[in-house]
Specification:
about 290 residues; alpha+beta; Rossmann fold; Tumour Suppressor Smad4; 2 domains; six-stranded antiparallel sheet; 9 helices; 18 strands; kinase; phospholipid biosynthesis
Length: about 290
């Protein structure tokens, strides 16, 4: 019997409709019975998943990290296994899971891959796959328009980040972890559940989406140019060794600021401080390459 899959697609995804049509044809050749849905508004994605959850065996999401972030809460509620077609700009979750950007290869993984359960992060009740953060990354998110991402791809992240870094100013925050209170002056606090974020940056050198912990780093710099020096290390996750970076990890973390500050989850602004972060171990089933070490 053919597996029945809900195929949810972001029509504005960067890879375009031609590649997507080929992927849909290939999924059908692989034996999938597809229930195709496309929505202009990401806010409608949870409702679509809830409406069809009892009609399908899995959900296939075509889009980038923002589309996946819009779907994650409903995926947790429905407990549908997740297949990913990486159609976005950064595709950080796909990178973490070892899913290539080639759509035919991604389709093969959905058809023949291994079903594994991964952790999710949660902040103020909102689930996330990769990273939730406040500070610089929020300002980058606010400036990264769809048009900029579509035109420049992953280079848009670098160009926008450099402009935001130059304008950055530190803010005060309190981090509470394991009964300890830590006061910081920082330009960014990031709390990671997965490994990659922001177009291939690494949360921490040993971060994994299966390690049942959250990895926090706080960029505590005085001058904007100090971040430039850190950028190469941030690609590999070695920035946590710097004297200007505070690195912590745990299963529950709280962050407080003097006034409410926006928090972005997987590149989408979804909540504000005060923030309660926690990890949810083995929260969701995903299809990934067999025996991929995360």
């Amino acid at each position: 019997m053919s597996p029945r899959a809900l195929l949810l697609v972001n029509p504005h995804a960067r890879q375009g409709q031609n590649n997507l049509s080929e992927a849909i044809d290939y999924l059908k050749k692989l034996g999938f019975d597809l229930l195709e849905e496309s929505t202009e508004n990401a806010e409608q994605i949870p409702e679509v998943i809830q409406r069809h959850q009892h009609e399908v065996d899995l959900a296939i999401v075509g889009g980038g990290d923002g589309t996946l972030n819009a779907a994650v809460d409903a995926l947790v509620t429905s407990q549908l296994p997740l297949g990913i077609l990486p159609l976005g700009t950064a595709n950080d979750l796909a990178r973490t899971l070892g899913i290539p950007n080639s759509l035919t290869e991604a389709c093969d993984i959905i058809a023949h891959g291994e079903v594994r359960r991964i952790d999710l992060g949660c902040v103020n009740g909102k689930h996330f796959f990769n990273v939730a953060s406040l500070g610089l990354s929020v300002k980058i998110t606010q400036r990264l328009t769809k048009e900029v991402k579509r035109r420049w791809g992953v280079f848009a992240y670098a160009a926008t980040a450099l402009r935001v870094i130059w304008e950055s100013r530190p803010f005060s925050a309190e981090i509470r972890l394991n009964g300890e209170s830590i006061k910081v002056k920082t330009v960014q606090i990031a709390v990671g559940n997965g490994r990659y974020y922001g177009g291939g940056m690494t949360v921490a050198e040993d971060a994994s989406i299966e390690d049942q912990r959250l990895d926090l780093y706080s960029l505590e710099i005085r001058h904007w140019w100090q971040i430039i020096l850190l950028l190469p290390a941030m690609r590999q996750g070695r920035h946590t060794n710097s004297q200007n970076v505070r690195a912590l990890n745990g299963q529950e973390i709280e962050v407080y600021t003097r006034k409410p500050r926006p928090i972005n989850t997987d590149g989408e602004i979804t909540t504000y401080t005060p923030a309660h972060f926690r990890v949810i171990p083995q929260a969701l089933s995903v299809l990934m390459p067999p025996s991929k070490k995360l």
